[in-house]
TrEMBL record:
It is a multi-pass membrane protein. Belongs to the EamA transporter family. It is found in: Cell membrane. The chain crosses the membrane at residues 7-29, 41-58, 74-91, 97-119, 131-147, 159-175, 187-207, 219-240, 252-270, 276-294. Residues 7-145, 159-293 form the EamA domain. It comes from Rossellomorea pakistanensis. This is Drug/metabolite transporter (DMT)-like permease. Keywords: Cell membrane, Membrane, Transmembrane, Transmembrane helix. InterPro entries: AA-Vitamin_Transporters (IPR050638), EamA_dom (IPR000620), EmrE-like (IPR037185). Its main location: membrane.
Length: 310
């Protein structure tokens, strides 16, 4: 038991660290190339989706069975477009406009919004601990955006809008595919979600400036791009795997190292600076997520698992 627990701890810490690293790497890619968020995501979603689905095929899983059910097909497409593509695009655009730490912290607001949605849906007040978590998160968001001064906002209007959309997107794709995940498994749903999201984005906003794209491709940028895809994908697989050995509460707490890793890299590697109140705000948001793991009943594993995607 102790050995399997150590394996679980190693998996979740590694997975959270890899996800925390991926944000600064995306920011570096935007700084060194002329890629747009759409250009980047088309390749990332398509390649990550294919990676997961091919992996499942080699395992012998029937990845096409989900398409035989009309209602499941509809829900899968909705998840792919509004959840997977929507959340990923908002996250990457927040990185591009502001920085990796800000995007990661806004992403962390997703789990905090879930109790609000459930309270409205069930017409029932959340537990005191969840109320405290929500209040803590909003205090943290206020400091993150304003750095303690409402007269001089630290983040631009666009960064705030895309950051809020990031939180809403991650909330949506955490809640919406729960039934699909119970029936078909997380990896099948997420794999198809990534692939469909990439195809839809390619159709809506195709890559037109191939010259600019080829000029951006160097050995260093291509290497970074591949590392981003691998880190995000393996982060997801490690997170899912850790749920076999640890409780959802433990994984929720340990995943809080994501913004810490992103923050350290962004400051030391990318030379970003943050105000004192912004750092306090980040701490409040992380604390809010930790408080959400305290309630009497753990979040169902299938729901929690969908909160980490490549």
């Amino acid at each position: 038991m102790q050995k399997t627990r150590r394996i679980g701890l190693l998996m979740i810490i590694s997975g959270a660290t890899l996800w925390g690293i991926s944000g600064p790497m995306i920011q570096w890619l935007f700084q060194k190339t002329e890629l747009t968020s759409s250009d980047y995501l088309i390749f990332r979603l398509l390649l990550a989706g294919l990676f997961i689905l091919v992996f499942l095929l080699f395992k012998g899983d029937n990845i096409f069975a989900i398409w035989k059910h009309p209602s499941h097909r509809i829900h899968l497409v909705i998840f792919a477009v509004l959840g997977m593509l929507g959340a990923q695009y908002a996250f990457v655009e927040t990185v591009r406009i502001s920085n990796a730490v800000t995007a990661t912290l806004f992403q962390f607001l997703g789990p905090v919004l879930i109790p609000i949605y459930i309270a409205i849906k069930d017409k029932k007040l959340p537990t005191p601990m969840k109320v405290l978590a929500v209040i803590t998160a909003f205090i943290g968001t206020f400091f993150l955006i304003t750095n303690g001064s409402v007269e001089n906002l630290v983040l631009s209007d666009n960064a705030v809008v895309w950051g809020i959309l990031t939180a809403l997107g991650f909330t949506f794709y955490t809640l919406q595919p729960v039934n699909l995940i119970k029936k078909w498994g997380t990896m099948v749903v997420v794999g198809w979600g990534l692939l469909i999201g990439g195809i839809v984005l390619l159709l809506i906003n195709p890559i037109n400036d191939y010259q600019k794209l080829t000029e951006s491709i160097t050995f260093s940028t291509m290497t970074m791009f591949l590392l981003i895809i691998l880190s995000g994908t393996f982060s997801f697989l490690l997170y899912i795997g850790s749920l076999k050995y640890l409780s959802a509460t433990e994984t929720g707490i340990l995943s809080s190292i994501e913004p810490l890793v992103a923050g350290i890299l962004t400051v030391t590697w990318l030379n970003e600076s943050f105000g004192g109140y912004q750092l306090i705000g980040g701490g409040f948001i992380i604390l809010a997520v930790i408080l959400l793991t305290v309630p009497e009943k753990e979040i169902e594993k299938g729901v929690v698992a969908s909160e980490r995607v490549s």
